[in-house]
Design a protein that fits this description.
Elements: E1 12-15, H1 36-45, E2 48-55, E3 61-62, E4 67-70
Parallel strand pairs: 1-2
Antiparallel strand pairs: 2-3, 2-4
Length: 79
């Protein structure tokens, strides 16, 4: 890491609204297994993920600006 606080690489996860804002502690529910393997790999290295909101008005494209999130706790839910 070049900066002692943030990682050089993160995984980017597109999520549906509502938005996540800097400085707010909120649950993020990822209900698809699309990113499960990548999440596991990155969370072992570091506890940061990037989150981009899906723009529903643009056919599911993600916004180019997102938020860096620190994962405080991961809970695996049953189906």
């Amino acid at each position: 890491m070049t900066n002692s606080t943030y990682p050089d690489e993160i995984i980017l996860i597109p999520i549906a609204p509502p938005s996540i804002y800097p400085g707010v502690i909120a649950p993020i529910v990822i209900n698809k297994n699309l990113y499960q393997k990548e999440m596991e790999e990155f969370l072992v290295k570091d506890s940061f993920i990037g989150v981009n909101i899906i723009n529903k008005e643009e056919n599911g494209q993600v916004f180019t600006t997102g938020v860096l999130c620190k994962v405080l706790k991961k809970i695996k839910l049953e189906n």
